[in-house]
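Checklist before submission:
- one chain only
- standard amino acids only
- sequence pasted in full

Submission:
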Amino acid sequence: MAVILFGGAAVAGLTAIAPSTARQDPNTAMSKIAPWVLDRTANGEQAEYLVVLADQADLSGAEALGTKQEKGRFVRDALWNKAQQTQEPILKMLRDSGVEHRSFYIVNMILVKGDLGLAMSLAARPDVARIEGNPVIRNVQNPLPVENVSSQPVAPETVEPGISYVHAPQVWALGFTGQGIVVGGADTGYRWTHNALKNHYRGWNGTVADHNFNWHDSIHTGGGSCSPDHVEPCDDNGHGTHTMGTAVGDDGAGNQVGMAPGAKWIGCRNMDQGLAPYPVGGNPSQGDPSRAPDLTTNSWACPASEGCSAATLQMGVEAQLAAGINMVVAAENGGSGCSTVTDPPAIYEATYSVGALTTGTDSIAGFSSRGPVTSDGSNRIKPNISAPGTNTRSSYGSGDTVYANLSGTSMATPHVAGGTALLLCARPVLRHNVGMTRTVLNNSAFHINSSLCSSSGTFPNNVFGYGRLDVQAAVNTLLLMGGVSRKTHGGAGTFDVPLPLSGAPGVECRSSGGNHTLVFTFDNNVVSGTASVTSGTGTVSGSPSFSGNTMTVNLTGVTDVQKITVTLHGVTDTSSPPQTLADTAVSVNMLIGDTNGNKTVNASDIAQTKGKVGQAVTSMNFREDTNANGSISASDLAIVKSKVGNSVP
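Returned file contents:
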């Protein structure tokens, strides 16, 4: 798998170097060096540290690509090319000096072993952004005691209770068991020969094992009971075998321990995401993003006490998201206090963090960490969702027929990862769209309200997130595929401003007396539903209209300079039985004159509009026709000028 170090090294950021070699002053250089590095290199000692470069790879182009393979190829190539183009000046210096080092590309950085003097020299370069520690990452999240280990492959009387509680068997009954989906795991390793895992391993064809592109060991020294650089999956702890069993495990003899027994798995030991797996014994230049997983399950953390800062893993995590891979992570076992989701990767917006319920109930487990996230100053709500996480029975690493009962957010996480595999199997249109996948899981969850830990009293909240995973409800959810703000520009035609369903809202810059038309598209024909303005100034005018797979909502009385949110209620399709969209909110920034969509009306909007005066209105310039009358004229320019200084957050 792709080389982002775990166990031996942590990820830092996605950055690269500039060609300048001008030196920076010592104070500036010192400020770039993490305290962990300063501590480990005191008194002339040497340490491993990560030299993070300053020029960042631009991955924004991946968002517009339509398939997961296209996204993966774009992201892998952008990162690889950036590293190849920018690292050579530093690499040459290190080679010439005989310094031990290793180059990485998913995060544009170089692992170096050296003293403080070398760190200061590197930090003084303007092409270096910062120097991070190379800490050991804690794979097991404050591990709780193993509650029971059995070497007897005795089948339980029913499917494991956590699997049943989130309604996976009902999805299996529809014919969806995860077939065609690949789950990637990053953990303590995996006993691939375990009866519950072997037939689900992508590297096993029933006769011969091929570990190329399916396994990576990033442990290069030590390795516990598994030797370093192990050429086949090996688990020196048991934790990884357990988590993967909950995601996909089934021995075919009644031990139905996994959520998605029809899915395949690949894995790595103590390592981050696999954007482009490569052969065992190979190198990253052989990476093949087409072999990347659809999602990853991650039950580990990188705490500050072991060298990670809040930003250490962020860019690497965001690369996985850009590649269309959903990173499902444990929310940590630091509860029951508030703001105990403290460490990467659980703290990030780009990860889907999972809290633990007491299995069989909708009560939060005492150990499950709570938000809000304060370690990075974001005050972000975490976890995102919750799942069963106590007394979970699954495969274990000490034998091919051994099962164990464990508790932790580590156990809740693969419930959600396996549930995601079931959803992607049933609704393949989601495979390239992590944002929409998460929206479906969130909206279909059994919502659990809370006012604890600075929560609002409803959901999402800092205890349960959106609530308990309900994969049956997720699969049966009507999908909102997109939305636009639509206006007719006189005889020039009709033009749409896209409205993203996640992330920053779209910006509607056209004036029409407070009247706007929003058009929503679904994955099936729709026949009924309502809409309401749930935030902002404006009202829904009349009843929505339906045509094929679209729903049209007219708004009136909408004021300028605001974010307005429209929530769709009870939208129902023509399926038998009908599927209903969970209440779904879509926001729009209303900012007349913001022709470039940057949430501020300023001189650049004036210049942009002035340069288009006299042009025929087309799909390339319709935003400059701010009065939507079919021509770009002095009146449009006057509107923009009158709005200068307006902005939305």
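Reviewer check: The first strand starts at residue 47 and ends at 53.
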